[in-house]
Amino acid sequence: MTEPADQVLQGYRQSIDNIDAALVHMLAERFKVTQAVGRHKATHGLPPADPGREERQIARLRQLATEAQLDPEFSEKFLRFIIDEVIRHHARMQA
């Protein structure tokens, strides 16, 4: 028989699994949109990166992270990883 503490842990893990699944689906949707952005940029001769937009997004996400009591350094690293991947995809579309 499962101990009560193990049942609590099981519940936490189920919540984590659900959140991870939601994150994957949200990232998939985000990348679908950024692929469309990349095609638009390639079609119209726009550069793959927009440093001003990136900095505004990072500042906005750092503020949201602070408000959500999430480490803003972590959120910036996470967003930077995503932005770098998007730029890589956009550059590849223009090659």
List keywords for this structure.
Chorismate Mutase Domain, subunit A, mainly alpha, 0% strand, 95 residues, elongated
Count every beta strand, where a strand is a DSSP E run of 2 or more residues.
0
Report the structural category.
mainly alpha
For CATH, the homologous superfamily is named as Chorismate mutase
CATH class: Mainly Alpha
- Alpha carbon gap, first and last residue: 60 Å
By DSSP (H or I, 4+ residues per run), the number of helices equals 3
EC number: 5.4.99.5
Enzyme class: isomerase
Pfam family, one: CM_2
Protein name: chorismate mutase
Q: How would you concisely characterize the structure shown here?
A:
With 95 residues, this protein is mostly helical.
Report what the structure shows:
- About 85% of the residues lie in helices and about 0% in strands.
- By secondary structure, the chain is mainly alpha-helical.
- It has one domain (about 5-95): Chorismate mutase (Chorismate Mutase Domain, subunit A).
- The chain is elongated and about 60 Å long.
- It starts with a helix and ends with a helix.
- The model has no long low-confidence stretch (mean pLDDT about 95).
